[in-house]
Amino acid sequence: MVKRDVYLSDRPLEEAQADYIQLLQQAGAINPGRPELIEVEKAAGRITAGPVYAKVSSPHYNASAMDGVAVRAVDTFGASENCPKRLKMGELVRMVDTGDPLPPGCDSVIMIEDIHFVAEDEFEITSAASPWQHVRVIGEDVVATEMIIPGNHRLRPVDLGGILAGGVTEIYVYPRPRVALLPTGSELVQPGAGLKEGDIIEYNTRVFAALVDEWGGLPIRYDITVDDYGLLKERLKSALDEADVVLINAGSSAGREDYTAELIAEMGEVFTHGVAIKPGKPVILGLVNGKPVVGVPGYPVSAVLGMELFVKPVVYRKIGSVPPARPLADCVMSRKIVSPMGVEEFVRVKLGRVGDKFIATPISRGAGVIMSMIRADGMLRVPRLSEGYNPGDVAPVELMRSLEEVRETTVVIGSHDMALDVLANYLRKIHPGASLSSAHVGSLGGLSALKRGEAHCAGTHLLDEETGDYNVSYIKRLLPGRSMVLLNLVYREQGFIVAKGNPKGITGVRDLIRPDVGYVNRQRGAGTRILLDYKLKEAGMDPGLISGYQREEYTHMAVAAAVASGSADAGMGIRAAAKALDLDFVGVVEERYDLCIPGEFRDLPYITRLLEVMELPEFREEVRSLGGYDLRDCGKIVWESE
Ligand SMILES: Nc1nc2c(c(=O)[nH]1)N[C@H]1C(S)=C(S)[C@@H](COP(=O)(O)OP(=O)(O)OC[C@H]3O[C@@H](n4cnc5c(N)ncnc54)[C@H](O)[C@@H]3O)O[C@H]1N2
Ligand code: MOO
């Protein structure tokens, strides 16, 4: 099949969303299915197809609400401390337990604690009982014929109790819409399969299945379809026979084997191909045989966003409902966020509460980085007609974690070290409500974040060329007059990360200017970058002669990954990063990595909890096992401002 040119449209998001729902409504494609009768005890999470009325009252008889004696209130009148009244067991004075029917003629219950027995069958009371005291009258909870639950209501566990109390055991709910999930792409392999170059693990439709289930739909996952127009057409046909909604994953953009839009257009109608959002642009919104068919982009983040923005409303409508709005919180931007005009961008952010502000720090924006969805606490929408935000700007963020959790998060901004990940892990283990979020902006970036009040502490390893000491002179210069402490986390080996077996024979900085050596650098402001520059200066070398000096990565692991991929021969970083990817390492120095903490935070749980973790032998052991770490001063204050 020869592909024609593909021009994606740039429709504004709200317009594309509203139009799609309207067109589907007109086509009758998102009407809820015919209600089905199911057992109440299996109905949690389902949507009621109509109101549920009580068949019986609850209680359906007058019931004693306490253990004690049932009486006629009039028989107790006149009783007081000074003038106790005696009652004898009989027809109208009878022992009852909680829940027992009130004996005929009785209208009141006296609690056993308020009774003083004077004989086997006679007792004294010192106050009168009022009529209907401690009695649960008929219908106190539910009155027969009363509406217990309205229609179009998602049933919660307590709702089941109310419905059953009302004597109802079966109810009508909307059927869960069947959503067919079609993964496409010749490069896809099933999870767990052996991988060769070019293989991609198929996980998107697994994520989709869990989402559809969460929204109330019934996912039907199909086998992978290779990139073949005819095969895809067959799949789509059988999916349309079986399901109410069909999702085709990938093949949505302009590639040579991107058939989705063409196929939907051939078999039905494409309303929209291309929405002005990032990620997720190439989404396809269509209709075939009266059923919604959505082409969801292949990249995992684009895919999840496509699901949230276009498929979720369809699934909800099919069960007579609309998606609940995500809660929002106003947050302060910690970094500059540049976003193209004309596109609504969805930026994943980490959140933390520092002082009285919620701080948002953007994380990876790549559409292929599923980890960004895992790490994110929130989603910042940069509107279509905005070019982004400056540090300090306030904007609403959609919460992906509760504010309560965010409040219990220690925010570390600065240089990256793998010991921080281990610290985060043990922190959650011993304080399950707490967490640590780290943003990697380099040591200097971390100190700037402290200056702006956007972090509880900063990871830093800045070498002072003059004194050979770490961090102190930088803090004095960047945060003058502020009360600060330096808490040591680790000493670690820095050096060159090189390929296994060190094939280029790199032994020190002098090798970096060799024409056959490609370097990968760290970003400006990173302690590791400063260390390299210092070493170059020491050796009297011109950085301009190093091929790859301009190539910047943000973490040790990213540098190691560049070496592992073969796109660079060497990069400066920590031994643990080399070890993690089974690379070789040429040691250069041992350096001190500290957490710089503003004095006002040092006694807050954000910090004291970290100190607790640093004392744990298993934490220390795990960090040591990463390789290249010495924890001799871990948890010690190594410097304090006057
Ligand atoms: N020339 C152009 N190229 C691309 C454009 C464009 O407009 N012009 N758009 C880019 C954007 S934006 C996106 S998003 C992707 C969309 O790609 P497709 O929907 O066509 O999907 P594929 O190219 O087949 O796959 C992309 C990528 O997604 C991953 N993938 C796919 N399926 C799965 C799955 N089931 N599980 C996990 N991961 C999956 C995989 O990494 C693929 O490499 O196109 C850009 N290109
Ligand atoms: O728009 Mo694509 O969905 O960014 O990756």
TrEMBL record:
Residues 180-317 form the MoaB/Mog domain. One of its GO terms (cellular component) is cytosol. It catalyses: adenylyl-molybdopterin + molybdate = Mo-molybdopterin + AMP + H(+). It is an enzyme of class 2 (transferase). Pathway: Cofactor biosynthesis; molybdopterin biosynthesis. Its EC number is 2.10.1.1. CDD domains: MoeA (cd00887). Its cofactor is Mg(2+). GO terms for biological process: Mo-molybdopterin cofactor biosynthetic process. Catalyzes the insertion of molybdate into adenylated molybdopterin with the concomitant release of AMP. May be involved in the biosynthesis of molybdopterin. This is Molybdopterin molybdenumtransferase. It comes from the Bacteria. One of its GO terms (molecular function) is metal ion binding. PANTHER family: MOLYBDOPTERIN BIOSYNTHESIS PROTEIN, MOLYBDOPTERIN MOLYBDENUMTRANSFERASE. Keywords: Magnesium, Metal-binding, Molybdenum, Molybdenum cofactor biosynthesis, Transferase. Signal peptide: none annotated. Belongs to the MoeA family. Pfam families: MoCF_biosynth, MoeA_C, MoeA_N, PBP_like.
